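Re: the request from the purification team.
They wanted to know what the chain is likely to look like in 3D before they choose a buffer screen. I agreed to run a prediction and write the result into the notebook, where they can find it.
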Amino acid sequence: MTRRRRRLVLIAVCGSVLAVALGLVLSAMRDTIVFFRSPTDVANHVVAPGTRFRLGGLVEAGSLQKGADNRVDFAVTDTGSTVKVRYQGLLPDLFREGQGVVTEGVLEPGGVFRADTVLAKHDETYMPREVADALKAQGRWQEGAGKDAGGPRPATLGPRSER
């Protein structure tokens, strides 16, 4: 075997090992990827029951019901559609009606979203990008509007200090 042929065989073997490793990594990540969906996506049957995903929107006013054993029922809306959410656990301190929320869980066959994680916005100017995009598509998002203008405002970063 010549030197050139040995190099080609070595390159081919390394390429094959790299391709197999990449395939294994991608197949392992497929089970951990969680997609974001809006209530309109759920209403349009884009998501099949039993699928794990993130649901985001606004907590519908008047929908919050607290039950026994830290069970909470509420509705998430993007002003186009509404999805009922059931959560077992303690809600974040900033969770309230009319505010942005992202929940992670599974859609049950009856159309109720069973959440195992609830994330609330952290101050009056923050809105998760996925939720803001869904609200923009519905015409609810007002760029630069504050609480008084009837809509959430995008997150802004202050000027960086010079060091």
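For the purification team: Residues 145-163 have pLDDT under 50 and may be disordered.
Please add any questions underneath this entry.
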